[in-house]
Design brief:
This protein has 396 residues and is mostly helical. It has a domain of 201 residues: Cytochrome Bc1 Complex, Chain D, domain 2, CATH 1.10.760. It is globular, with a radius of gyration of 21 Å. Keywords: Heme, Iron, Metal-binding, Oxidoreductase, Periplasm, Peroxidase, Signal. Its cofactor is heme.
């Protein structure tokens, strides 16, 4: 059974009531949306550098249109029920608010949280553990993983696409050829690189010189972020742009802490059933209807280098207000919880990165830091959502 986070379900519902990402107001022309997407992927939004497009896969409108269709097509899973977009929901910041960890076909559990694809084109390694270096090949893992889309092979998907008549002209327009594994990856890569969002209030202030773009509290939070908090040591801010990630792998103490909790489960857990209503549930009842939670060794599972145990890729902080829950397993529902974890110095377990240490922030400083993090949300998310939903998904 999947491990649902009831607090995340309520959080997602509450956020959706007032978040522009959940209620797109941007009008998109079905005939020209891909032109805007292509221009965006070739542009340099305020606060972001140019997207590094592969030399052998320059973006085109035809590739972006094909990639969007593939991303939303449920027929690409073994039982025609799951698409990429079901774990990367456009209205939810291209991730999933309701679940701590993703689920695949037939409700099969996945041990990690769905990462957002917003600005994914800037990353040099993909997945929380960096197991794939390219968007052109990243899709193969989810397509064939038994607990995700569960196809028996990548070739099975290629054969399927060549049998679907509506895909033939799309591949011809994009590549002048029929569907193949490399062309599927090129189209998906081209589409995902167009899902980019900068020009946040922070960008308008820090890079654009608009002093009124953020509040005084956000400016104080920035000083904490780059100073006392030491956050910018891993969540980088460059002179002309800010990706808010070093694209590296670190042991923050969190992974090992969660493994210790897995091996030593509590006798009861709090379950939020309504806003402000929490019940303590006997944890043995949860275990009786759940599969056993897997250990997660992070980067070690890719390299098998002992020093890589518990290391995970530094996530970008852009648009994090619309991409809860947080951490690689979605255990934290709110930014307040994340800030509290780092303020206390992580878990303090052996091997933890020495840059993670008690910060001793005051209540006001924690509030200001959170206000700064909230200023990293782009105003363009509703247009990205509208583009994604320009057509109905296949097999809906």
């Amino acid at each position: 059974m999947p491990r649902f986070s009831f607090s995340c379900i309520m959080l997602g519902f509450l956020i959706s009531l007032g978040n522009t990402a959940a209620q797109p107001s941007c009008e998109v022309d079905p005939e020209s949306w891909s032109k805007a997407a292509l221009q965006r992927s070739l542009s340099t939004p305020l606060g972001l550098p140019p997207i590094p497009h592969p030399a052998d896969n320059p973006p085109t409108r035809a590739k972006i249109e094909l990639g969007r269709k593939l991303f939303f097509d449920r027929r690409l899973s073994i039982n025609r029920t799951m698409s990429c977009a079901m774990c990367h929901v456009p209205e939810q910041g291209f991730t999933n608010w309701e679940l701590s960890t993703a689920i695949g076909v037939e409700g099969r559990s996945i041990k990690r949280n769905s990462p957002s694809i917003l600005n994914v084109g800037y990353l040099s390694t993909l997945f929380h553990d960096g197991r794939d270096p390219s968007l052109e090949t990243q899709f193969i893992g989810p397509l064939t993983a038994r607990n995700e889309m569960a196809n028996p092979s990548a070739g099975h998907v290629v054969s399927l696409l060549n049998s679907l008549l509506e895909y033939k002209p799309l591949f011809e327009d994009a590549f002048g050829a029929h569907a193949s594994l490399d062309r599927i990856g090129m189209a998906l890569g081209a589409y995902q690189r167009s899902v980019m969002a900068g020009n946040s209030p922070f960008d308008q202030w820090h890079f654009g010189g608009n002093e009124a773009a953020v509040s005084d509290a956000a400016k104080r939070g920035y000083e904490i972020f780059t100073g006392k908090g030491g956050c910018s040591g891993c969540h980088l801010i460059e002179e002309e742009y800010a990706l808010f990630t070093d694209d590296q792998f670190h042991d923050t103490g969190y992974g090992q802490m969660r493994e210790n909790e897995r091996q030593n489960p509590p006798s009861s857990i709090p379950v939020q059933v309504a806003p402000g209503v929490v019940h303590q549930m006997d944890f043995s009842k949860v275990l009786s209807v759940s599969i056993k939670r897997e250990a997660d060794l992070g980067r070690y599972e890719v390299t098998e280098v002992p020093l890589d145990r518990w290391k995970f890729r530094t996530p970008t902080l852009r648009n994090l207000t619309v991409t809860p829950p947080y951490m690689h397993d979605g255990h934290f529902s709110t930014l307040t919880e994340v800030i509290r974890f780092y303020d206390q110095g992580g878990s303090g377990l052996p091997g933890q990165d020495p840059r993670i240490h008690p910060l001793k922030l005051t209540g006001t400083e924690r509030t200001d830091l959170e206000t700064f993090l909230r200023s990293l949300t782009s105003p363009d998310l509703d247009c990205l959502t509208a583009e994604a939903r320009v057509e109905q998904p296949d097999n809906y």
